[in-house]
């Protein structure tokens, strides 16, 4: 799976760069940062450390689990003006300051290739 990159996020684990998450033409891609691979720990059991990128048609279940649900999703969606079906947009809007170890921050993409 490859293609055009639409949006990019930086994934931090305990305030340390762990990797990058991309919204791509055919789904999503997550890859660990090279430096993080040497001494980090997985951001999730479902995403063990490895050099090869993870790719999926749907947002990875770990990141999906960070999203608001139910009535809170409705409030966040209306306040941030993000469609409730835009899981990547909601991820960027709601996970910059979480109570857990993982945070997700928007990165401006300059290269629109893969």
Description:
It is a single chain. This protein has one domain (5-107). It is built from 4 helices and 5 strands. It has helices at 34-39, 61-64, 70-80, 87-94, and strands at 5-13, 16-24, 27-32, 54-56, 102-107. The protein has a 5-stranded antiparallel beta sheet with strand order 4-3-2-1-5. The longest helix is centred in the middle third of the chain and has 11 residues, at 70-80. The protein is globular, with a radius of gyration of 14 Å. The termini are close together.
Characterize this entry briefly.
By secondary structure, this protein is an alpha+beta fold. The chain has helices spanning 34-39, 61-64, 70-80, 87-94; strands spanning 5-13, 16-24, 27-32, 54-56, 102-107.
Q: Whole-number radius of gyration?
A: 14 Å
Q: Domains counted in the coordinates: how many?
A: 1
Helix fraction? 25-40%
Uncertain parts = none
Find the structural class using helix and strand composition.
alpha+beta
Task: Describe the secondary structure blueprint for this structure.
Layout: E1 5-13, E2 16-24, E3 27-32, H1 34-39, E4 54-56, H2 61-64, H3 70-80, H4 87-94, E5 102-107
Antiparallel strand pairs: 1-2, 1-5, 2-3, 3-4
Features:
114 residues; alpha+beta
